Amino acid sequence: MNDFRFGPAEFYLVGFEGDRPDPATFRALTDLISSGVVRLLDFVVLTKSEQGDIEILELDSDGGPLSLGDITPIASGIAGEEDVDALAELIPPGQSAAIVVLELSFARELAQKLAAAGGQVLRSERVPAPVVNAMMDILDQEGE
């Protein structure tokens, strides 16, 4: 059986008001990671000045305001310089964002089981949650 160390990775750019993410956002992420639904591969915090200058902020290992507690990324650096540069362009001036690279645990297991059965995932496409919810609202209205 193929034993995959990692499944597919997804990059998320999560924006925040101001120059620092709030603790509730970090808590939401750590809760999800702790549940085992996802694994944190990489995490980069960026802030953009009003003039458009980008600063990369380091995570605090001592539990400070930029801390994920005892959770550390397991593949730091997977979000390369080109990824950071491209995603930083999307941050509005005076705001901050985190590049969060997640592995969906079920996707690793799915790919592993398909490979063991002689198959492989050729393509995967994500439909954003707002689009799915809007489509379901339309379908619900049509069914009334």
Secondary structure blueprint with pairings:
Blueprint (H helix, E strand, L loop, with lengths): L8 E8 L6 H13 L2 E11 L5 E4 L23 H8 L7 E9 H12 L12 H14 L2
Antiparallel strand pairs: 1-4, 2-3, 2-4
**Category by helix and strand content:** alpha+beta
Amino-to-carboxy terminus distance = 48 Å
Indicate the overall shape. globular
Number of strands: 4
As a whole number of angstroms, the C-alpha radius of gyration is 18 Å
Mean pLDDT, all residues: 86
The fraction of residues assigned to DSSP E strands is 15-25%
Task: Work out the helicity level.
Answer: 25-40%
Largest sheet strand order: 1-4-2-3
Series of H and E elements: EHEEHEHH
Multimeric state = single chain
Main beta sheet, described? Answer: 4 strands, antiparallel
How large is the count of helical segments? 4
Sequence stretches where pLDDT stays below 50 over 5 or more residues: none
